Amino acid sequence: SSRPFTVTDWAMKSDKLHEHDPKMWDDLVDNFSTHKDEVDEILKKAGKLSL
Asked: Which domain of life is it from (predicted)?
C-alpha cells in the first residue's frame, strides 16, 4: 500500500475528523493559472513537458 493512501485511510478513520463546510470552496481563487506561461517557460528550460 502506498503511504499517501495509508495516511488518508488512517485520517478518515480518526475520531478527530474535522469536516469543513463545502461553502469554503466557493470563493477559492485560482492563482496558479495566472502563472502558466511562467511555469511553461521554466519547464521548457528544464527539458520537461509544458502544462
From this structure: Eukaryota
